[in-house]
Amino acid sequence: MIDLKNIIEKLLRERSLSVEEYEQLIEHRTPEIQELLRCEADKIRKTIYGNKVYIRGLIEVSNICKNNCYYCGIRGENTNCQRYRLTADEILECCDKGYELGFRTFVMQGGEDGFFTDEVMCDLVREIKSRYPDCAVTLSLGERSYESYKRLYNAGADRYLLRHEAVSSQLYGRLHPKEMKIENRLQCLENLKKIGFQTGCGFMVGAPHQTARHIAEDLKFIENFKPQMCGIGPFIPHKDTTFKDYPKGSAELTCFLLSIVRIVLPSVLLPATTALGTAENDGRERGILSGANVVMPNLSPESVRAKYALYDNKISTGAESAQHIAELKAKMARIGYDVVCDRGDYVEK
Ligand code: SAM
């Protein structure tokens, strides 16, 4: 007989479970348990971040990628993908526009595009920091060497997002070609943290071949690694990938996991990801109500937004207008949260 009550009490008391306990919690999730943990997560977040929701301006700098992750629409071998790369000037224009709209964090994300050498990226980071010294710069450009990360940090980058994707080497191996190794991904995450970045890991929910056990292992990894940020969002199939017929991951389970992560790591910066919510549904609001405290509106130029298609039907409306931000603020206000104009750094507790 599984003692779920004991598991939940242990989670709330110790902020830690064994892999087996995480697995049982996931497998035996009920709407009542989900609501209980959601309320606890919300309470914990409010003690640290109040009702603030931080916004990050996402700039999708390039969809050119040397990797071939089997689930990703911009994987290198997808010949149907129309490739683009923003110029430094275009990226800086996105920041200028974003700053006016109230963004104080810019996230530069892209495929592993060899054009963005350390020299190119360091120049860009330095330019953004000199124009906007009150802003944080987040990078999400994949796996690089220790020295490369160090140079980017020294140039002024504050945060780095690198989802670990799957800590199980067996699952990681089914999602990626053999030259990509989980050991390397984890080493990158260790390096980022050691260098001093606010570091983010994370994974997709409902990824092909993923089981409750795999998710439990990912939660245990997150508990031990203690990232400052954690990106958890549903897997969504893309028509030009191996997994085009695989079902979309569950938004409900994603919200449940967001609550668990908030309980385990009270201070974590937790986005309600774009895959979770669209302008048309209330996914982002549900994510925030489940313990998330970050949203990442898109600041990329309209001409390229549809091309950064990681998955099918990704929304390509952006945050480029004051009206969009006003709508986001109104939506969050309706559920009791306040979108703030702030760097929104990690709070050490
Ligand atoms: N190249 C960088 C990297 O590897 O971290 C950043 C870009 S990568 C496209 C960003 C994230 O998109 C990945 O970490 C992955 O979890 C997510 N992603 C890719 N394909 C997806 C899909 N089909 N559904 C949901 N998320 C996806």
* Percent in strands: 5-15%
Q: Give the CATH class.
A: Alpha Beta
Main beta sheet: strand number and arrangement? 6 strands, parallel
Cofactors and ligands: S-adenosylmethionine
What's the structural domain tally?
1
Q: What's the overall average pLDDT, rounded?
A: 95
As a whole number of angstroms, the C-alpha radius of gyration is 19 Å
Across the major sheet, the strand order is 2-3-4-5-6-7
Oligomer: single chain
User: Would you identify the CATH architecture?
Assistant: Alpha-Beta Barrel
Assign the CATH topology.
TIM Barrel
Question: What is the share of helical residues?
Answer: 40-55%
Q: Strand-and-helix sequence, N→C?
A: HHHEEHEHEHEHHEHEHHEHHE
Describe the 3D structure.
Helices cover 43% and strands 12% of the residues. With 349 residues, the protein is of the alpha/beta class. The protein has one domain: TIM Barrel, CATH 3.20.20. The strands form two sheets. Strands 2-3-4-5-6-7 form a six-stranded parallel beta sheet. It has a three-stranded parallel beta sheet with strand order 8-1-9. β3, α5 and β4 (136-140) form a beta-alpha-beta unit. α2 crosses α9 (212-225) and α6 (146-154) runs parallel beside α8. The longest helix has 19 residues, at 31-49. The chain is globular, with a radius of gyration of 19 Å. It binds S-adenosylmethionine. S-adenosylmethionine is lined by residues 71-72, 109, 111-112, 140-142, 162-163, 165, 204, 233, 235-236, 238, 275, 310-311.
